[in-house]
Amino acid sequence: MSEADANKDLLEALNSVNEVKIGDVVKGEVLALDDNKQVIVGLEGTGVEGVVPFKELSTKPGEDIEKSIKIGDVFDLVVISKIGSDKEGGSYLLSQRRLEARKVWDEIEKKFEAGETITAPVTQVVKGGLVVDAGVRGFIPASMIEDHFVEDLNQYKGQTLELKIVEIEPSENRLILSHKEIVKAQREAKKAETMAKLTAGDVVEGKVARLTSFGAFVDLGGVDGLVHVSEIAFERVDKPSDVLKVGQTVKVKVLAVDPEKERISLSIKQTLPQPWDQVAEKVAEGDVIEGTVKRLTSFGAFVEVFPGVEGLVHISQISHKHIATPNEVLTSGEKIKVKVLSVRPEEHRLGLSIKALEEKPAAGVSENKKRRPAAKPTISNAPEESTGFTLGDLVGDELKKNDK
Questions:
Q1: Over the stretch 284-319, which tens digit does the pLDDT of each residue have?
Q2: Rounded Cα distance, 132 and 178, in Å
Q3: Among 12, 146, 171, 394, whose CB has the most other CB atoms within 10 angstroms?
Q4: What's the rounded Cα separation, in Å, for the pair 123 and 130?
Q5: For residues 51 and 40, what is the distance between their CA atoms, to the nearest angstrom?
Q6: pLDDT class for 221, splitting at 50, 70, 90?
Q7: pLDDT of 56 higher than 90
Q8: What is the pTM of this model?
């Protein structure tokens, strides 16, 4: 080979050496592994060497570097900085981990622009939120974890969550994420699905979510329905908390569904056996039972003898003595014993008597001489459809002033 040809080959070799710049992605062939677990590599096409510190490798914690990296392996690496001067035959500081992180950032940015979500495991609980591993470090502020306040964040450690990307800044390694947005979207979707399925008359199960003075809100699966206090039980309920507990599973009947206002009316008592259906098995004419005075009217007293079952003690059956109004001898809430005069469950009627349990006064001065005109019962005070008794029933023994 002539001198000219040799010089030409040398020039071509020198021109073929690529210049290495900070931030470049290069290929490095493993040449050696030193005592500090640093990987010495030769940079392809440059004729120079580089060093990859142990912490800049993408090996997993606890992984044996000597088993995972072998002489001759070729990696993609990013140039971090230059080590030494050109005169000293400088080399480069390289990183495998940062290159992979750069790829992750690129993927996350694309998902952010497309409005897509990511999934990541919670690796750490810190003051103010959660740290996740999304290939890069991500942070979920406490206010963005759920759509309600969460007191104990430790319950999320180790969980893999679906997350919405709120803010991303790769140059500052800042990735802010939200699980709250996912929860809200899922809840709305579930609510719409549940509302679409429910129709009046359906009997379903739910869990008591909240208790108020006027009723109970029951979670039917993403949407709450209201059981008004009057629909909790057949017997009177003063406070829903007296008979229900938050978290309790209950069976409810759907009374009405209003999709526009997102309101669902429910009833618990309409899923229970009708109280009057079993009255004939529990009581018969002539029985003496205990009850509670629930309501006092001008014509008598309504006494609850079983939950949801009230019978009427007509004013003429309260006492052997003449009384103008029931509240002269009875008070609401009072417990009394009564004798059953008649049982008509199919008509929701139960005739009761107090005076039948009392000894009749000895014959003497006529009570009629002492009696004042009794107040006449009115239909407006006791409509048949609400009491179960007709006008004839309410007048009762008033038409027969003389007791037998």
A1: 999 999 999 999 999 999 999 998 899 999 999 999
A2: 11
A3: 394
A4: 8
A5: 5
A6: confident
A7: no
A8: 0.51
What is the spatial distance between Cα 199 and Cα 330, in angstroms, rounded to a whole number?
A: 45
Q: How confident is the model at residue 402 (pLDDT cuts 50, 70, 90)?
A: very low
The residue count of the chain comes to 404
If pLDDT is split at 50, 70 and 90, which confidence band does 360 have? confident
Report the relative pairing of strands 137-141 and 117-126 from DSSP bridges. Answer: unpaired
Token pair of 52 as six digits: 């990859």
